[in-house]
Amino acid sequence: MKRIENISIAVIGLGYVGLPLARLFSTKYSTVGFDLNQERVDALMSGHDATLEVSDELLQEALKNGFRCTANLEDISSCNYYIVAVPTPVDTDNHPDLTPLVKASEIVGQVIARGDIVVYESTVYPGVTEEVCLPVVEKISGLKFNVDFFAGYSPERINPGDKEHTVEKIKKVTSGSTPQIAEQVDLLYNSVLLNGTHRASSIKVAEASKIIENSQRDVNIAFMNELAKIFNAMGIDTQEVIDAAASKWNFIKLKPGLVGGHCISVDPYYLIQKAQVYGILPRIMSNARHLNDSMGNYVGKQVIKLMNKKGILVKDARILILGTTFKEDCPDIRNTKVIDIYTILHEYSNNIVVYDPWVDTLKMKRVYGIDVETKADNLPVGRFDVVVLAVAHRQFLNMDIRQYLQPAGIIYDVKSVLPVSWVDGRL
Predict the structure, then answer these.
(1) One domain, residues 185 and 329
(2) Positions marked active-site
(3) Is the pTM of this model over 0.70?
(4) Please, are residues 408 and 383 in contact by the beta-carbon 8 Å criterion?
(5) Confidence of residue 2 (pLDDT cuts 50, 70, 90)
(6) To 5 degrees, how large is the angle CA 153–CA 156–CA 162?
(7) What is the DSSP letter of 378?
(8) How many domains does the chain have?
(9) Measured on CA atoms in the order 128, 130, 132, 136, is the torsion positive or negative?
(10) What range defines the domain where residue 341 resides?
(11) Fewer CB within 10 Å: C terminus or N terminus of the chain?
C-alpha cells in the first residue's frame, strides 16, 4: 500500500463537487481532474469554471502549479488514489439512477492497480459503494477488493454558490474498507482541510450520514411550507409568525421556500427507495418530498389568485419573473422549481419575461426551452402587471423592483426578502 507522502490523485467528475475538491488536493499533491466531457475539460484548462465554484484566479493558479484536467484515461493510469465525484440523479419516476456511478466505477476499473485506493464521494443510500460500485471495479480490473485494492467513502458536503463554507472549511466524514485504509483516507483529507474530519466506523455509516443530512433539511423545509399554506389560507403573514416564534430561545428558525437543485430535492429518494426494500415506508420523508415538489405550482396559483383579487386580467398579463436558478448567487439551474412557477403562469400568458443575470442562456434554452434576459437595462420600466421575485440574487436586493410595475401591478416575494410595504403577497 502507498504511503501518504507518495500520493498521486485522480478526481473523476469535474462538476460542482469534483472540481473544487481536485483544486484543493492539487495544493499539496500531484492531482489530475478527469471528466468525459471534453468541452468541460477544455474550458477548465483555459482557466475558467462555468459553475463559478472555483474562481478564475484559483483555477489559473492551480494550473500554473501543475494541476491539469483531462478526458484521456492514460493521464490518470499512474495515480494511486481515485476519488469519484459524479452525480447521483433520479429517473422520471424518482427512482435512483446509478448509471453515472457505475460508469465511473468502470473507468476506475480500467486504471486501478494493486495497492491503490478508490474513494467515493457521491451521495448514495447505504450499501451502494460495497454492493454496486466495488463489484464493478473488481470485474473490470480483475483485482480483488480488500486484497489487491481498497476503498473509502467521504460524502461531499459542498453547498453550491456558498462562498463562506468552501470545500477546505467543511468538516468531512471519512471511512475506509479496513481500519488501516480508514486511517489513510482520514489522513489524506485532514491534510487539506481546515476543520478536520469525523471518521465513521464503516462505509455504510458514512453513506447514511450524508443522505440523512439532506433528508432532514427536506423534511424541515416541508414543515415550514405546510405552515405557509395554512397561514396563507388564514390570511396570516407566515414570516411574521416565524419572527414571533423565533423570540423563544429554543425555536429553530427556518423559512418556507422552493426546494430544487441536485441534492436536497433528489437525495431523499435514494433512502426512500432503499427503505422499501426492507419493508419500511418512510411516510414523513415521502410526504415531505411530495409537498416540496408541489410548491412551485402552489406559488404560481397564489400569484394568479392575487391577480384576480386585484382585478388584473390574467390572460395575457405582462409578467416579470426575477431569477431562475435553484438558489441565490449561483448559476446552477438543476431541478429548479422556478420552472414550475413559469409553467403555471405560462398557461395564461405568453407575455412573460424571465430575468436572471447568473444563468447561461443557451443552457437554459436547451434544458427548459425558456429564453432568459441577463441584462437589467433591457427590462422595460413601468410595463409589468406582475413581478415575481423567485430567487434572492444580490442584484435583485439592490434594485427598486417597483419601477418595473404598472401603477396597479403586484409583487409576489417567494423568498420574503423585500420590504413588506412593497409586496402584495409572499410565501
Answers:
(1) no
(2) 263
(3) yes
(4) no
(5) very low
(6) 165
(7) G
(8) 2
(9) positive
(10) 294-426
(11) N
